[in-house]
Design brief:
- The chain has about 160 residues and is of the alpha+beta class.
- It has one domain (about 20-155): Alpha-Beta Plaits (2-Layer Sandwich).
- It has helices at about 1-20, 55-60, 90-95, 120-125, 130; strands spanning about 30, 40-45, 65-70, 75-80, 100, 115, 135-145, 150-155.
- The radius of gyration is 22 Å and the shape is elongated.
Length: about 160
């Protein structure tokens, strides 16, 4: 009789989870729609920047350096994502809102030097369909009383 309990006990523990909603998103065919305050890759606006270097000074990980850009007389922020912690100080303290966060998180590279983004590169956010051609739908996360669930929002 005890061997039957040993067999049925794990089944009884796992059974309720078998019929629940999925707890993951099938990335890259599905991609989450992130909340408004999500901190993804930065977007930079040349026309707003006054070259005050506050973003560089408040960066505790020293990921932002001010560099000269060809054809412009001021210096502009260059971000090294090797060390950036996405803390948000640069975005928060910028007096002219020249830096902002996007929902773009697909930054995987083979060479670590490619994670240093020049000001020109920060202005360009690639189209999501170019980066994830296999994406079929966008999914939204929401909370219930007991768990987080996902619902399909739109097909792409």
């Amino acid at each position: 009789m005890s061997w039957i309990k040993k067999i049925l006990k794990p089944i009884a523990i796992v059974a309720p989870y078998v019929f629940r909603n999925s707890q993951t998103v099938a990335y890259p065919t599905e991609r989450l729609i992130f909340k408004e305050r999500f901190r993804g890759r930065h977007k930079f606006f040349f026309e707003r920047c006054i070259s005050c270097a506050i973003c560089s000074r408040v960066c505790h990980s020293k990921s932002i350096t001010m560099v000269e850009v060809e054809g412009r007389e001021k210096t502009f922020p260059q971000i090294d994502y090797n060390t950036c912690s996405f803390c948000g100080y640069c975005v928060e303290f910028c007096p002219k809102e020249a830096l902002e966060f996007t929902d773009f998180v697909e930054m995987a590279v083979i060479d670590r030097d490619e994670l240093v983004y020049s000001p020109e590169r920060l202005t360009e956010i690639p189209d999501l369909k170019d980066v994830l051609p296999q994406m079929k739908r966008r999914t939204e996360a929401y909370l219930t009383d007991k768990e987080m669930k996902y619902r399909k929002v739109k097909d792409v």
